[in-house]
Design a protein that fits this description.
Alpha-D-Glucose-1,6-Bisphosphate, Chain A, domain 3, TATA-Binding Protein, 22 strands, 503 residues, 6-stranded antiparallel beta sheet, alpha/beta, 14 helices, 3 domains, 7-stranded mixed beta sheet
């Protein structure tokens, strides 16, 4: 047995790394043991009467990556080795792993046990050599502090195994369960035939969305044109990342050629949605969130309710200003699905979203990011507006963005160990004179969001990759490009300086 366990892949929102050097069967086996032991202690602190492993039940599922089954099997073995029980959901979208904690499952099948959490093998949108693990407990994703705690429990489990070769004879049950049918029945009942008369294109990118979304949308009444629905971990047609404009070429073409109302694209584990307009143009995450926000605000206004809506630092100022102007409360927070979910819980927000296409509905849903469900809500919005105006198009809801120019997201490579120092030096260089514009405020909740009278410039660390992400906005294209050129050049020079000093 090796001396140490490589835990480098433990991150802020999940476990994520390259297979097999950073994520492998050994890590997943001990991560499962550590997670169950951590969960037992959480239940004990909460005063639960059922804190033995034998009373606990965890759902496990995986994405379509070529090494996901190996890692899922290691997770299952790790959970069972503690005496806890497993519901194996097999190949399924991440949101269905989340859903398993809310699903109505026959008590007799569960042997009168409650689902305590879910372990989901996925690296989402990352390249095919990556894999990862998302963890939930008590109907919520683990936050940054909880992931740190699970890491410590994982190391303890590994060290204990080194010191004691004894292996417990206790084993929980391991049952397979069809969560997809359960999910589709639930969602189709919620929306009935709302999509009748609406034509959409669905690009599942040979990931997990194709197992669920096309058929579900047909059950809602939509005419569906499918692209790349068959799961294939080689991702033979394009990478499963709708945030990357290059991956949307096929769906843009199909939407225009088929005269569809819009297109829906999914990422690798179907928790992020990409949307293409009837004209074949990408609708960015902040624009999409505004569509959902306006619909929600209008619905709740009739009942005298004022919703809070959470988004992240990369989103357009137009989103925040429009939400506030409509009488709701817009809240800016850190990028990352774990952070956003925590902020929603803290503030009681009914809706949240990120530029990347993570959309979280607490209104009429469970509060987690589910791209398939987000597609249902978009179908519903189009149907609702079509009843008022037969010529309605999604672009009709995006007029607030006509007054600003938004840059695409810029990705600047930077080794993780330099990021903090580069950001600190950047902050010292930023002045009104440097940008040629008066700075109204600098938001530091996640990187640096420099707010000007006419827009903003943003630089922040990616939570999952060795890059900075940058975005810019201004009332003119010229000002936007000026902000971009100045901040990108400065950041690039600082990254190069740190690289040279390390040589």
């Amino acid at each position: 047995m090796q001396e140490t366990l490589n835990t480098k892949a433990f991150g802020k929102n999940d476990i994520r790394g390259i297979f097999p050097s950073e994520v492998n069967s050994q890590l997943y086996f001990y991560a499962a043991k550590g997670y169950v032991n951590w969960a037992k202690d959480q239940l004990s602190k909460q005063g639960s009467k059922r804190t033995s492993a034998e009373d606990m039940l965890f759902c496990v599922c995986m994405d379509a990556r070529l090494h996901s089954k190996e890692l899922k099997d290691a997770l299952v073995k790790g959970v069972l080795s503690t005496g806890a029980n497993v519901l194996d959901l097999g190949l399924a979208p991440t949101p269905l792993g989340y859903f398993s904690e809310f699903a109505k499952i026959d008590k007799e099948f569960l042997e009168d046990k409650k689902v305590n959490g879910a372990l989901i093998v996925t690296a989402s949108h990352n390249p095919s050599e990556y894999n990862g693990l998302k963890m939930t407990f008590n109907r919520a994703s683990l936050n940054e502090e909880q992931i740190k705690e699970v890491k410590e429990y994982t190391i303890k489990a590994f060290e204990s195994a080194k010191e004691n070769s004894y292996c417990s004879a206790r084993r929980g049950f391991n049952k397979e369960y069809d969560i997809i049918s359960n999910y589709c029945d639930k969602i189709s009942d919620m929306f009935d035939k709302v999509g009748t008369g609406i034509k959409i294109v669905v690009d599942s990118a040979n990931a997990t969305g194709g197992l669920v979304a096309p058929q579900l949308y047909r059950e809602l009444g939509c005419e569906v044109i499918e692209l790349f629905s068959q799961p294939d971990g080689n991702f033979p047609n394009h990478h499963p990342n709708p945030s990357d404009e290059k991956t949307l070429d096929a769906i843009k073409k199909a939407v225009v050629e088929n005269k569809a109302d819009f297109g829906i694209a999914f990422d690798g584990d179907s928790d992020r949605i990409g949307v293409v307009s009837s004209e074949g143009k990408t609708i960015s995450g902040d624009k999409l969130l505004l569509i959902y926000s306006v619909d929600l605000i209008n619905e709740l206004k009739a009942h005298g309710e004022v919703p809070s809506i959470v988004s992240e630092v990369k989103c357009s100022q137009v989103l925040y200003d429009t939400i506030n102007s409509l009488g709701a409360k817009a809240i800016m927070y850190k990028t990352g699905h774990g952070y956003i979910k925590s902020k929603m819980k803290e503030t009681g927000a009914l809706l949240a979203g990120e530029m990347s296409g993570h959309i979280f509905f607490k209104d009429r849903y469970f509060g987690y990011d589910d791209a398939i469900y987000a597609g249902c809500r978009l179908i519903e919005i189009v149907a609702k507006n079509r009843k008022k105006n037969k010529n309605f198009d999604l672009k009709d809801l995006l007029t607030p963005f006509d007054q600003v120019y938004l840059s695409d997201e810029v990705r600047l490579k930077c080794p993780n160990e330099y990021k903090k120092d580069v950001l600190e030096e950047l902050k010292g260089e930023i002045t009104d004179d440097f940008f040629g514009s008066k700075i109204k405020d600098i938001v530091t909740i996640d990187g640096l969001r420099i707010i000007f009278e006419d827009g903003f410039a943003l630089i922040r660390q990616s939570n999952t990759e060795p890059v900075f992400t940058l975005r810019f906005e201004a009332t003119t294209k010229e000002r936007c490009e000026s902000y971009r050129e100045k901040l990108c050049t400065l950041a690039e020079n600082l990254v190069k300086k740190h690289a040279q000093t390390k040589v």
